[in-house]
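Collaborator request log, item 7. Partner lab (contact: R.S.) asked for a structural prediction of Glutamate receptor ionotropic, kainate 2 to inform their binding assays.
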Amino acid sequence: MHVQSICDAIDIPHVETRWDFQLQRADMSINLFPRPSVLSQAYVDLVKIWGWRSFSLVYDEHEGVIRLQDFLKEAQINDWRVQLYQFRPSHAYRDIFWRIKSAGESRIVLDVKRDTLRTVLKHAQQVGMMTESHNYLITSLDLHTIDMEDFKYGKTNITGFRLVDENNADLQGLVVELNTKWSGAIRKLDFPIKTIRTETALMYDAVQLFAKALQDLDGSKSIYFPNISCDSGLRGLDGSSIINFMKPVSCDFSR
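Returned to partner:
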C-alpha cells in the first residue's frame, strides 16, 4: 500500500501480481492477479454446480475469511449448512480434521497457503479424511505445483483452479532453462523443476505487458523518464501514458 501511494504521487507505473482485496486501485497501479470478487464467485458457482448443501470452510490466515465470505453470504440465501474452521499455529492441522470428521462432513473448501498445503492434506489423510467419499475444493492457484502422488490412490475428489498454462511453449522453455542453470543450486527434493507458481508466471506476464506498452507508446512519441527520487519533487513525465497503454492491452505473450 505504501509503495502504491509513492508510485501514484510521482507518476511511476506500479504493477502487482498478488491477491489484493482492495476494491479501489490507485491511478498508477494495475494488478494482474484475478479480481478477488470474480475468483470468489467462480468458487461459489462451482459449489452450486456440484449441488453442495452442507460443507466446511477451513482456512489458516485471517485473510481467508475475506476470501471465503461469499460462501457465507450464499449460505444465508440458499439455506446451506456451513461450518467455519481456522487452523491455529499452536495446534496440529489434524485436530481440525478430527472435528470435521466427528461432525460427519465430507465436503471441504480449503483455503491455506501453498507452502503448507501438502502438509495439511497429509494430516487430513492421517485421520481418514482423504477417501473416495471426500471432496475438496482448494482455493490456492498453486495446486498444480504440489506433488499429489501420495493422495491419488485414495480416489479423493480434489479440485482447484489453475492460471498457468503448462502447455505454453514459453513456459516449457523457461522450465528447461531454469533446470539447466540451477541444477547445482537447487535441493534434490525440488529438482527437476516441472512448473512455476502462479505469482512467478504473472511476474513474467507483467514484464511482457510493460515491454509491449513501452513499444506501443514509443511508436507514437519519444519516451522520457527523468531521474526521480522521493525528495526531488520530479514526476515521471510518461508514467501516466505508460500505465494507460498497459490497462487495455490484451495479447498472447506466447508468440
